[in-house]
Amino acid sequence: MILLPIRRLLSYDCGRLFIKARKVTILLLTLFFVFSILRIITQHYRTTTSTTLNSTEPLWNLIEYQYGNIHFDDHDGTKNETGFDVSIVPDIVHYIQLKNPYLEFVTLISIMSTLRHHRPRLLLIHSDRKVLRGKYWDQVKQLNKTQTYTIIRLNHIKQPKYIFGKKLSSVYHASDIVRLRVLQQFGGIYLDNDVYVVRSLHRFRVFEFAIGWPEDQFLGTQVLICHRNARFLKLWYESYREYKPTLWYYNAGELPTTKFLEKQPNLVHREKIQFGVHYLVDMLYEEQNPFWDKMYYAIHMLARHRSHSDGIVYFNEDNIKDYNRTFGQMARLAYYGSKNILK
């Protein structure tokens, strides 16, 4: 007589447990399905096949950031001294690769140093080549698959031939134009292909425009961190109406320094030393400086300016293993994860 109610009770409890288990199973399957779809989407937008970014992509949300529409005429110039209370520059790093579809090893080192020490949300390589080639590009694609935070994207652009009706004299001057246009479109952090990121650059994202400008020199174009509406960015671009094709650094460095920055230094946050855009060839290729990783936030590697007295024409993943100069430590840390000699 007592067993019957117990049996019914057990049957009722088992039924409830079965229903709960089924609901949990359905929930887990749903979450798995959603996660799988998100993973596919993420991998799609990590693609290193060249396409042109447009405003219909979900990736655009990384670009159209909360502070994208600040107008700096509404703020006093002291903001480039103290900075804003929040990061107003998007966490996007820009590289430019024109004409040459093959990445050099030094460019790979630059990218790997950026991923290791800064970890941007998005890394864009702007190129007039629809496909990049070579083993170092293959390694960038592999990094894109294994990175869990940074999305690497190849963005197709056209190489400019003219500026304000004047023909550009070289691909290097074309690159000068592209970097200004890219920053006007997106904002972010522009790096030359031979810039090594030593430490995180996030602290400079609170400024309207942060730039390397050594004492008694013209500005350096190798590291540019700015909001897309930065006042100096507009002035700099417009100054190309005075483009002089035969003068190598006139429009890129001399004119914007003398015409704007020397008269209105508050247009930028000036870094005299820590962006490493001054001449550091001896420190990099003639010395072993144990303090390089504490002295700078970035270093222009100047690989084409060294003397080759060490017998090395081109650096690669093998000859950096025992290269006993400052650059050797830097390259090993970025590529192998250790500054120590490896042979």
UniProtKB/TrEMBL annotation:
<dbReference type="InterPro" id="IPR007577">
    <property type="entry name" value="GlycoTrfase_DXD_sugar-bd_CS"/>
</dbReference>
<dbReference type="Pfam" id="PF04488">
    <property type="entry name" value="Gly_transf_sug"/>
</dbReference>
<keyword id="KW-0472">Membrane</keyword>
<keyword id="KW-1133">Transmembrane helix</keyword>
<dbReference type="InterPro" id="IPR029044">
    <property type="entry name" value="Nucleotide-diphossugar_trans"/>
</dbReference>
<keyword id="KW-0812">Transmembrane</keyword>
<feature type="transmembrane region" description="Helical">
    <location>
        <begin position="21"/>
        <end position="41"/>
    </location>
</feature>
<protein>
    <submittedName>
        <fullName>Uncharacterized protein</fullName>
    </submittedName>
</protein>
